[in-house]
Amino acid sequence: MSTLYRLFAGTAERTPDAPALEAGEATLTYGELHRLALNLAARIVAEHGGVPERVALLAAHSVTTYAGYLAAQRLGAAVTPLNPDYPVKRNRMVCDLARPGVLIADEAGAAQLDADLGDAAPTVLRLTDADVAAGVPGELPADTAGPDDVAYILFTSGSTGRPKGVPIQHRCAVDYVRHNVERFEVGPGARMSHTFDLTFDPSVFDLFVTWAGGATLVVPRKAELLSPVDYLVDRRITHWFSVPSVVSVSHELGTLPPGRATGLRYSIFIGEPLTYTQAEIWAEVAPAATIVNVYGPTELTVACTEFRLGPDPLQWPETSNDTVPIGDLYDFLDYVVVDESGQAADEGELCVRGSQRFAGYLDPADDNGRFLRYRAPATVPYVGGGITPDLYYRTGDRVRFEAGNLVHLGRMDNQVKVRGYRVELGEIEAALRRHPDVTQAVVIATNRAGETELHCYYTGAEVPELRRWLRKHVPVHMVPRSAERIAAMPLNANGKIDRGVLRASLEMAGAGGR
Question: Which of 262, 270, 261, 254 has its CA nearest to residue 304?
């Protein structure tokens, strides 16, 4: 069975002269990028004194980044990406949890080595792209990595404040990559966007769906993502992959002129609910592109569902919350939707098993409560004993079948009780977005003196009577105590709306009513 490295190496062997990577001023063919990766792999072995089990990669959008990722994969080492823009304390915490044998830092990450990461691994390589280009061949061990070995480890936010490590095996990643190469017709001549940081798992699509299909990864400069249409047109992008927030933010900035991105074939969105408003705006930007909404948590290897919108918006299926359905599960995965009583239902928590499901968290203590067995007609919670293939992963996402389509209703923990009523925050947000002057809306729940209070942040035009308007569309207990217009939603490093920043802002303001 293949590995991520072998998917890339197979393409490099078949088409060594085809362009694999455009990063900065550099354009590298598959043969050139492969040579740099092999030379860097040999240097890692020489300086570390052997093959490391794990390699941390403190790098972003440089040749060092991609050669380093492939070098680690060639050695069968699990990659743990670190974001140079994250706080150094957070990166240090991740290193302490992952315990990498080698830490590679490019020029963007070098400053953090001097801050607190200089001793975060037994072997630290501070490299420039020139260093990588000047690498020379060296002794390499046999490529013995197998499907059960860990390809990469990503860290997600944990409820205790400690990040949770998610190891993904090659078998999970290879199944995902192969499915998407075929599904999105990725091949020579395709030019793939790269909007995701390596710490966010959709970057696995960016890199390895591109390279397994023989396409070109086109790395944007930071300024280019502020004007995505220019990036699409000037860099001749054929496949776009991003979070939906990019559409809203760019639209508010006035950088989405319609009709220019005529060369785009596929527009794929992940990470947040894709609203029909966002889909309509993007359809005007790239009228010939197929819009696809995909969904999946890191634990299920990037994405496990997809829904394609047809070319005519009038034929798009209506949903209760005005978001595009997440669609069907990949046909090689198994799933069940369970309600609060543990029974299979048309609405409830989505639980998935199959070849893309990970084998458990880096810390087994994090597995508790995250898996279940389904034995019709009910489920049995996982209480220990090892993560076996028959277990379903509990996504924590609430879904509902609407007209035969799976619709994402929000996180299970976004359901709160207000005055005894069970309330979905996503339902209030959907109602707010229906106001013609509201672009985006986020509802935050707080607890004051034992009472749950709701507060709304929105973008768009100022709407002085927004709460009064909302009373006509939702029950009174669902009307937020306050509604504050902000210029733009705060985004995290993955481009998602950062609800934590809004919550902190609310707490600092004392959650005063409006």
Answer: 270
Last residue of some domain: 382, 410, 438? 410
Q: Is residue 98 part of a domain?
A: no
Contact 191, 239 (CB under 8 A): yes
Q: What are phi and psi of 322, to 5 degrees?
A: 60, 30
Within a domain: 17: no
Sheet holding 19-23, edge to edge: 26-29, 19-23, 216-218, 191-192, 239-242, 266-269, 290-295, 305-308, 328-329
Q: Which domain holds residue 371?
A: 332-410
Position 514 scores a pLDDT of 41
Mean pLDDT confidence for 392-400? 95
Determine the residue type at 10: G
The H or E element that residue 72 is part of is helix 63-74
3 state DSSP class of 492: coil
Alpha carbon 57 to its chain centroid, in Å, reads: 18
Nearest to 346 by CA among 355, 361, 336: 336
Q: Mean pLDDT score of the chain, rounded to an integer? A: 93
Burial category of 108 from C-beta neighbours within 10 Å (exposed 0-12, middle 13-18, buried 19 and up): middle
Give the number of other Cβ atoms within 10 Å of residue 363's Cβ: 12
Residues 6+ away with beta carbon under 8 Å from 329: 304, 305, 335, 352, 406
Residues 402, 345 share a domain: yes
Looking at the structure, do residues 362 and 396 belong to the same domain, yes or no? yes
459 shares a domain with 425: yes
> Rounded mean pLDDT of 315-326?
96
Are 427 and 489 part of one and the same domain? Answer: yes
Tokens of 211: 């390279």
Dihedral (CA of 438, 262, 18, 356) sign: positive
Q: Which of 469, 396, 403 is nearest to 433 (CA)?
A: 469
Residue with tokens 């950062």: 498
Residue in the block written with tokens 């009910």 = 378
Contact 56, 82 (CB under 8 A): yes
CA dist., res. 321 & res. 407, Å (int): 9
Q: What is the CATH number of the domain that holds 432?
A: 3.30.300.30
φ/ψ (deg, to 5) at 33: -65, -40
**337 beta partners:** 350
Q: How many domains does the chain have?
A: 2
Centre a 10 Å sphere on the Cβ of residue 236 and count the other Cβ atoms it contains.
13
Q: Give the CA diameter of the chain.
A: 72
The CATH number for 377's domain is: 2.30.38.10
Q: How confident is the model at residue 146 (pLDDT cuts 50, 70, 90)?
A: very high
pLDDT higher than threshold 80 for residue 157:
no
Distance, CA of 266 to CA of 292 (rounded, Å): 7
Interior angle at CA 303, CA 271 and CA 101, nearest 5: 90
Q: Which of 393, 410, 427 is the last residue of a domain?
A: 410
